[in-house]
Amino acid sequence: MAAPATRAFRSRFLRRFKATAVVLAVASGFLLIQGSAGYANPSPAPGDIEAQIDQTWNTLEPMIEKYNAVHGQYTAMQAKVNALKAQIAPLQLQVDLAMTRVGAISAQAYMFGPGSKLNALMQGSDPAQFVDELTTLDQIARREAATVSDVAKLRDQYEVQKKPLDDALATLQQQNDDLSAQKTTIEAKIKQLDSMRLAAYGNGQGTGSLRPVTCPQVYTGDRGSRAAQFACQQIGKRYVWAADGPNTYDCSGLTEAGWRSVGVSLPHNALEQKYATPRVAVGDLRPGDLVFYYSDVHHVVIYVGNGWVVSAPTFGIPVEMQKIDMSRYNSAGRPG
């Protein structure tokens, strides 16, 4: 058995150890709490969000191409159906006329047909008249049967021609609707990411008067957005006549280089770029569209969204953002 002094020492040691352990545990917990409270997940950087947009666009673009193909097939099939309907319309008219004739014969047979005529003949006494009436009834029956047969053939012919087209249209319609729904969902996601991107940029991403707001203003990851983004990245570089990068640009050299960065070739001339692109209404402008100025089209800028463009203006003024100038506006085009 341990001595009383030994037991007392052990008791004091255990009490001190427990107290020390409690103090350490509390201190550790405080540090953990402080560490947790002091840590904050940083918001995604604009570049990271743009990378997500690019990745989402890479999912959307093949779907859009598939949608375009299916929609094109659907439109072409619809045109075929309409053309066939135009050819079948006279056939349907014949069907309707034949059915009308059948109805008339049936009514005639009901009023004056075999039953009533036979009753009349049974009451008559002229054998020759009886034979003639039977012959007439037989001819009416034959004509009625032939008419019904013709109607059936016409109806069958109509259905045979129409059914495979109706089936194909139904299949294409379903594919078209499914792809359209998926496309709408992904476009909504891109729009949400672009809103996050603008929020992440905030109002502090300007470069003085050259870039007063976020550039591009709209970014969806498509080729137009990427061409606009390229132009935004050139802001601040010097204007040099006939230059198309990488360190200096003139107006058409900037737009040509922007679209070249996404694999689309354009001539290095504002007027020729107008001729090389289909027209776009001002209300339908999208990032990457080209906006042409002056009646002789001697200046071109690239649209970056929300009424803003990027321009390589003239000697002594570097590449900069501007609001679209409708006083100089000529037209707009969409490369690609």
Comma- or semicolon-separated keywords:
336 residues, alpha+beta, two-stranded parallel ribbon, endopeptidase fold (from Nostoc punctiforme), 8% strand, 2 domains, Helix Hairpins
Write the layout of secondary structure elements.
Elements: H1 4-38, H2 46-112, H3 114-123, H4 127-201, H5 223-233, E1 238-239, E2 248-249, H6 251-260, H7 270-275, E3 290-293, E4 299-305, E5 308-311, E6 320-323, E7 329-333
Parallel strand pairs: 1-2
Antiparallel strand pairs: 3-4, 3-7, 4-5, 5-6
**Poorly predicted segments:** 17-41
Basic shape: elongated
CATH class of the largest domain: Mainly Alpha
Number of strands: 7
Number of helices: 7
Q: State which percent range the strand residues make up.
A: 5-15%
| Structural class label | alpha+beta
Q: Supply Rg.
A: 42 Å
End-to-end Cα distance: 97 Å
Using the coordinates shown, work out and report the CATH topology of the largest domain.
Helix Hairpins
